[in-house]
Amino acid sequence: MTSHVIEKAEVGDNSKNNERDFPLSSSYEAAMEALSSLITRQNRKDRSSVGGKFGQLERMSIYLEIMGLEEKLNELKIIHVAGTKGKGSTCAFSEAILRESGFRTGLFTSPHLIDVRERIRVNGLDISEDKFLIHFWNCWNLLKEKVTDDLPMPPLFQFLTILAFKVFISEKVDVAIIEVGLGGKTDSTNVIKAPVVCGITSLGMDHMDVLGNTLREIASHKAGIFKPEVPAFTAPQLSEAMDALQERASELKISLKIAAPLDLKRWDGLKLSLSGEHQLVNAGLAVSLCKCWLQKTGNWNNLIRAKEDDEEYIPEAFLKGLSTARLSGRAQIVHDTPLVLHSSTNASGDTMGKLVFYLDGAHSPESMEACAKWFAIATKEGKTLPTLTHPSSFEDLSYKTGFFPHEKQSNSDVISKQILLFNCMEVRDPHTLFPPLVSTCSSLGTHFSKALFVPSMSTYNRVTSGDNIIPKDISAKDLAWQFKLQQIWEKIVHGKDLVSEKSYKADNLELLLPSKFLHEDITYCNPSRRIPCSSVMPSLPLTIKWLRDCVKENPSLHLQVLVTGSLHLVGDILKLLRK
Ligand SMILES: Nc1ncnc2c1ncn2[C@@H]1O[C@H](COP(=O)(O)OP(=O)(O)OP(=O)(O)O)[C@@H](O)[C@H]1O
Ligand SMILES: [Mg+2]
Ligand SMILES: [Mg+2]
User: Fold this and answer.
1) What is the pTM of this model?
2) Keywords assigned by UniProt (predicted)?
3) Looking at domain 332-578, which CATH architecture does it have?
């Protein structure tokens, strides 16, 4: 993208000019370039002071005023959702439920995986490129005209929030479902003054740099979205968090109800479209939020059968929404290389993935546990599972004995192995992420044959379109963080420090012979010889190639790869697999 294009795009007084001068795709790239310029490198804690004298929410109000959106925003019938984990899923369920109930929906979630337009959905679909561009340049140009030293352009998330409000207002949605970006009290979305109902998803420890170090502090930040006269619902919480939520609700004299996790037994044949046991919690909250929204907007009675007075009754449209809601990169399974089974046990010749990616963007301790549980169960499919236990110490775990029971014989001529493909942002603490992952998997009988640490490709300082991804210079990536992850992993899994003589050079792929993979555990994963069963891989494209070679060269191998630790990583893998 040349600066010429950006300049043109910026000065154009409406989007039509841009569209006339440039093909749509280049105009979209120009928008991404402009968006990227809004990414601030400032410490999140001091975000409110990013240039200018106004606080974050005050600035939001001024921007909305500039855009002429303030009044219309107050008329939107909003469901506002905060929480540590499950916000996106709860919002996605709510959107699908209300759309299936006959309403035109707007959905604002974060982050995105492949394309920024995923964050803004209208009636179930990501906003189209041309609509995005029209609204994008309209917001951009109006704000750009008014910026001063005291009121600079909004940072990325703030801009996207304004854009989403503008889209939902223009598209005349009946309901807007809005996910909080971070925290609650000071989040840009908290400029919403009178939502119809508020929801709090599962709370846990995350973003402590901004929200505080105790669950109570975190909960009180999230409760900052509560508003007078607006009912609130929460997923079940630990008492420390619940007390803080309740305290805020009492101050405002609003009702705070606990939404019970969905009980699938009651709904014969219902299968949630987002998998994992934790989704029952999110689905339960979504049901309560939607029911309340329908009641408060006077639509509930139209939806229920007249004689139905059962408190727990769920209309058909709700069940349809719960079974069709989608949100990629959360417990998503992608079959890469098809495998046709010819064995007598599968005479029908069903195909199953020979290389299967299990994608989940978990990046906090609680979500790691949820993700591990989902992976362990999903990879076993149909087998009897041991009861989930929480081993108190890693000393107890079987992998310390040197016995690796990870070869699951799912078919007489197929050997299944589980691999971990991991990366996380450097602000995360891997010491808190690996233990719940390893112990939960292990307690369910799943053990990784190998862990691969790979840098993500997306950079955090650019917003890109879905087409724009593969950096040319992959070898020049700094892999120090991946080596650190590997070291921590080895220490946790084998209790041994890694020898660091080969340090900071990615594993030579020539040595990781795919043809040997099937039998390599014994020779390579021997802690006493200090050879780790983990590798630092130089890039994601090479990692995928290596995995594909592994299954190609070992006809009986069935690889189940858990990709987790970062939504960026998950998004990159989705982009690469899609190509
Ligand atoms: N109720 C839950 N309890 C624990 N973990 C959960 C729960 N819901 C979702 N997760 C985990 O968190 C990940 C992200 O889910 P989701 O996108 O719904 O949450 P979010 O709150 O929007 O997250 P983010 O902080 O990334 O915006 C999932 O992939 C899953 O691993
Ligand atoms: Mg988060
Ligand atoms: Mg989210």
Assistant:
1) 0.83
2) ATP-binding, Cytoplasm, Ligase, Magnesium, Membrane, Metal-binding, Mitochondrion, Mitochondrion inner membrane, Nucleotide-binding, One-carbon metabolism
3) Alpha-Beta Complex (3.90)
Give dist(CA 113, CA 167) in Å, integer.
20
Q: Map tokens 């040595």 to a residue.
A: 511
Q: Does 367 appear as a known binding residue?
A: no
CATH topology of domain 75-103+176-326: UDP-N-acetylmuramoyl-L-alanine:D-glutamate ligase (3.40.1190)
Find the 516 Cα to ligand 3 centroid distance in Å: 40
| Complex ipTM over 0.85 | yes
Report the C-alpha gap between 423 and 426 in whole angstroms.
9
CA nearest neighbour of 79 among 64, 92, 69, 61: 92
Among 548, 490, 475, smallest CA distance to 517 is for 548
For ion ligand 3, residues whose CB falls within 5 Å = 87-88
Cis peptide before 111 (omega within 30 of 0): yes
Residues lining ligand 1, judged by CB closer than 6 Å?
83, 85-89, 110, 201-202, 278, 281-282, 330, 360-362, 366-367, 370-371, 567
Q: What is the DSSP letter of 441?
A: H
From the number of C-beta atoms within 10 Å of its C-beta (0-12, 13-18, 19+), residue 527 rates as middle
Instruction: Compute the distance from residue 552 Cα to the ligand 2 centre, in Å.
Output: 38
Condensed to tens digits (0 to 9), the pLDDT of residues 279-293 reads: 999 999 999 999 999
Break the chain into its structural domains and give their ranges. Answer: 1-67+125-173, 75-103+176-326, 332-578
Of the candidates 164, 76, 60, which has an alpha carbon nearest to the alpha carbon of residue 112?
164
What Å distances lie between residue 362 and 331, 415, 542, 564, CA to CA?
A: 9, 27, 23, 6
Q: Which residue type, as a one-letter code, is found at position 94? A: S
Give the pair of three-digit tokens for residue 368: 């790691």
pLDDT tens digits for range 329-339? 999 999 986 54
How many whole angstroms separate alpha carbon 412 and alpha carbon 410?
A: 7
Instruction: Work out whether strand 534-536 and strand 448-453 pair parallel, antiparallel, or are unpaired.
Output: parallel
CB atoms closer than 10 angstroms to residue 73: 22
- Burial track 167-190 (b if 16+ CB lie within 10 A, e otherwise): bbbebebbbbbbbbbbbbbbbbbb
Using the atom order of ligand 1, give the atom closest to the CA of residue 206: 25
**Under 8 Å CB-to-CB from 387, ≥6 apart: which residues?**
none
Residue 191: which pLDDT band, with cuts at 50, 70 and 90? very high
Centroid of chain to Cα 550: 29
DSSP 387: P
| Structural tokens at position 241 | 């968090």
* Mutation pick for ligand 1 pocket among 89, 221, 222, 225 (CB with most ligand atoms within 8 Å): 89
